[in-house]
## 1
Amino acid sequence: MRNRYYTQIKIWMTAVLLLWVAACTDEPGVGVKGERDGNKPVMICAATGGLGIATRSGEGQVGDSVAIQNRTMLFTYPSYPDGEMASAKCVFDEAGFGYVYTKVETKEPLMWKDIYVKDKEKNLVEAVYLDNLYNYPVQEEILNPDFDGQKDNRRYLQTDNFRMMYFGKQYPKVADDTLGNEFKRMIAPLGTPAAEEVDIIWGKLENVGFGTTLQFSLQHKMAAVGFRFHSEVGELQQALNGDKIRVWVDYLRIWMETPGFEGKESTEGNQAFSRMKGEIYQDGQPGARYSQKNVFWVKDSLLQPDETNTVFSTPVWVLPPDRSQFRVFGHRPELFIDLGEDKVFHGLFPETMDWWRYDDNKHEWVEYKNVPLKFWPGYQFTFNVKLLDKVEGREIEFVNVEVTGWSTKLIERPVLGESGITNWDDLMALAKAYNKNPSKTNYRLMRFGMWSERENKWVFNLLRDIEVPVGTTLPEFNGDNFKIDFRGFHIKVGDTDITEEQLSTK
């Protein structure tokens, strides 16, 4: 059955998928047009696109797209004949081709004739959706038995998981949950099987041409957080290398639902996730009452050291975005690190940050000053933390926070200990930041490497081969208190290998 329906379209999709892997289109949607034949199966390709990088230094590049492969997702569509929303599983193979089945077991494909066409003159389907929440299929819309026919019908519909979705209770209950709630924890370390389930990726296409191959550019709807620790105090630097480190955060929201709203029947005000809008909603005041203590990043284990063993990182954790907690209600998260032997350091998260964001219309980076610190969906937050010698009650300093869109760099390097140069834009951004301030206290440069006390200079790591055309102008580093650890990789202009001496003006 599969070969009968899919062979010809798979040839078309090969070209489409190659375009995805190279670079995702700016305006995803209708792909390669097929014949307007209702007996054709629905075919899908999809990719997650990075939103770019933003740091306090303001340099960076737009993230790459990553094709969806070897996983199951959920395709949601208006069904024939009257447009009711229905869902079918979409199985992506190792090549990135998505096959939509109404019955996965028998490989019965979803046909275009099964999809409702709203604009019959232009043969357009109003909207279709793709996400990874196949454990939460769209339910049939049923009227609330108490509906008296006199009031707004929408407010009396039973809960469905298209406009609103609940993620269920946590079984078994978590022993150290200080609030004792039963909601499912939507948090997991990146790169683990649990993270694939809790990290929501979602996409929507509007006004889709009938019979076309569908190209989705999916967005991450969760946030990701990690920490990088360093210290200029020798004793603390050594302690960071211990094997019984504990790092945790108090006052974080790690579930979608709000205590007190469980089981209510309403389409407004208490939804955890709207598949229709792709929005995560958390009701209630997000203060201490709705926040969890003892959320662990590391527990009785090693931190991940970088190449020079001077910066130590936690894993990156996926967790629900929180867009109001840190600013409005005065209950900012608090970071703790226990190095053992009564060396416990803690401090409140900073209230604000300087935010750089890539403007797709202007094709330039735009700076926003003193932005309230919030965990935006689709971004990774990397907190660079300096441990102090408890001078005047100060224990830790949040040196900076790097804000990175989900991208191939994040997927390939889920542990934050590996800073370095990955492309030409990185090299140009590094030179700019270095020339502004080459001192060892410029922690903006930690994105590309580390200060070496032994060599008394910055050591920047080259993580990939970089090749640019002949005639490309080299960046200039105004000084020589740096070195580039090439690690077997090369920087080439044409066929010429570039050395660090060629980059220095001294």
## 2
Amino acid sequence: MEWLARTGVPWSAEPDVIASRRLDRSGWEPPGSPSGVAFPRTVADVRAVLKGAAETRTPVVPRGAGTALTGASAAGSGSVVLDLSGMNRILDIRPADGVAVVEPGVITADLDRAAAAHGLRYAPDPASLELSTIGGNVATNAGGLRCAKYGVTRDAVLGMEIVLAGGELLTTGRATLKGVAGYDLTGLFVGSEGTLGVIVSATLRLRPLPAATATIAAYYPDVESAAAASVALAEARIQPVLAELLDQATLDAIDPGLRSAGSALLIVQTDGDQAEAAHAAEVLRAGAVSVQVSEDPEPLLYARRQALPSIERLGRPLIEDIAVPRSRLAEAVRRIGVIAARHDVRICTVAHAGDGNLHPLIVAGSHGSPIPEAAVRAGDDIFALALELGGTVTGEHGIGVLKRQWLAREAGPLSLDLQHRLKAVFDPLGILNPGKAL
């Protein structure tokens, strides 16, 4: 790694440092280990590393907090991990313009809290918002609970600074809320999983904090009824901030006491006036066991965010991520139950029901043990179900390495070929996160 030392960028080849940056939260293990970890602090540092990597044909794996769930930030033999967590400054918040400019290592929740001091919010809020970084969110086009109303990360990104594979610095987009000049390169980089360039700053849209919110906990006798209730909200032309569905298996994992009122829970939040909240509660009462309205959302949202940690205590989870048209949501959750029974595996289903994004979490044996074949077959059936219902194999987690064969099936040969050709334009040597996303 002499070339990396010559860049002057802090780096390490210590085994414990490499081990701590080698994997992401997916559990997927690449063959071998990276050769080193670079710790850039400036844009110039990132440019120096990528220039050296291009000269030596060294693969580079960009990394934020390592919360990726698809293997997108796992690094294997011969690569260098580019740990961007140290580039964590909020460079500017401009309240009158409704924008923030941040480095990639900024923690998502920290930006939201900083914006709140100005009466604003950063709307995207993935479940990992207290850990995940803005750079990682942009690279995967992360979603979250509030995206039912405010959209996913792409809807908040106005512009970026990106270091390309050869070390060149590219500026995309703008700092204005409107702008249509040229091709949308900003949108192209959002969700590209570090395969086209390395994000070194992002200009993000902020939104006003709501004057008030109302949070509704609606319990149902079964998960299909809860899913149908979320569709009923859309049919009533109610746009909730969030609509989160938890099935019986998930409630049991979090706290069996949560299931005392019903076998499925739908958490709905509105941020309009009292009339909107009252209308939502009225719609949700149809078929519900109980409906409660609260002005303090934290206990319910905390329970929702504890879903994955709670399921991880049951065993190794395969965290699937599909999206279907909202009108097919009830059918999707019903058929996921059929898949679980067919393969005799435990599946805990959590859904961002407001936009049809489901997370069937397959409990696949104990941590560290091989994944049972039944769990793999169940996952394949879930992906096939998503495509059958007119949906997608990933709503917000990305492709990484775990879903590449399913991307080929969803996109088709022409689209996939065009994407490979785009990759070659931006990264002709194929050194940026090779083997990921496509």
## 3
Amino acid sequence: MSQNPPSLRPDLAPRARVVEAARPHQPRPNQPRIGMVSLGCPKALVDSERILTRLRAEGYAISPDYAGAEAVIVNTCGFLDSAKAESLEAIGEALAANGRVIVTGCLGAEPDFITGAHPSVLAVTGPHQYEQVLDAVHAAVPPSPDPFIDLLPGQSVHLTPRHFSYLKISEGCNHKCKFCIIPDMRGKLASRPAHAILREAEKLVDNGVKELLVISQDTSAYGVDIKHAEDRGHRAHITDLARDLGSLGAWVRLHYVYPYPHVRNLIPLMAEGLVLPYLDIPFQHAHPEVLRRMARPAAAARTLDEIALWRADCPDIALRSTFIVGYPGETEDEFQTLLDWLDEAQLDRVGCFQYENVAGARSNALPGHVADEVKQDRWNRFMEKSQEISAARLARKLGQVLDVIVDEVDSEGATCRTKADAPEIDGNLFIDDGFEGLAPGDIVQVMVDEAGDYDLWGSLPR
């Protein structure tokens, strides 16, 4: 069981694999089979799930390997140059192993970039262009549905373990951060109707999901674009949505929450236990001038006040964030301000990445780009500081009895998460003794016996 230091951005958690979780029962004779590789963020993973669900409904089987597929879909990431390189590598691997590849996802917004490197791909479509992906699959591998079996799949295809699921509530973003090209790739904010989200969440919980991970590009702006419309008894506002989701009996975890003033209305829901006491907030930096150059709200001091109020109303709240070091023009004094802010904010979970130019981002043209060795030094110092804070905050949990959800059980023990830990990006709680009766998806109480820099170890109360 490996430990999981949170050194990555939440939306860059590792997801570069041939999909296996969607493997159906034994395909029938002559059933067309499609493979998929899903890269990038949880939002892209949800897109992959939707595509596979539609394909299953049309009679396609999902192949867990290249050899068994008649074509392969590669759902790409294109946020950073390193992610683009990974996407091109995955496309090349699929071409070498299978030869028939359809590309979709964020990098699909740059079709010439893809075809310039891999001219033999069958088709290129952009992010969340489900119909175009299906058209490309139909052209490459014609469907052959069995009307008695394939009218609708029994349930949606999910690429996460059965006990948790991502729940996407909107697409796009209205922010114009200079380092980000997400609005160019995915467009402006487009919120889903609240009743549709609730219906999807109810089906997930009915099918055994114990944890709903709410995702979007800007979760706290949910419903702004549709003027918080009410439809079928549900209002499209993040506070109302969180309350409705909390009534379903599953853990509800909120990701990518910008610290708008109305976020404080979510805190009582956490104190009441309707929503997990966890906020994932992309602060990105703390110095007002750096935030100004990023074209983000420069309100670091007021943010500290907000954090203090959140903790006063909900002492158990866990705060996660991500930051950029080495942004163009960042001085040593500005970076030191970030370290000092981190000392004061005492965030529970922190990730950090070094600034990279991204094709099309306005930050590329800013003066004062920071040398690579300086970026690396600042990243090292930032992670050292955040590690100290994480270790100190985890040490305070020694002797406490916490609710945990079991993710995996093997011969060595059980890998679990507390309410303060999101899958793949935060830490774990490990149970090394008396775990034999546990299964993934169980929610149990555990006594914390040992604390590390990022992870906890515990035992089941006897």
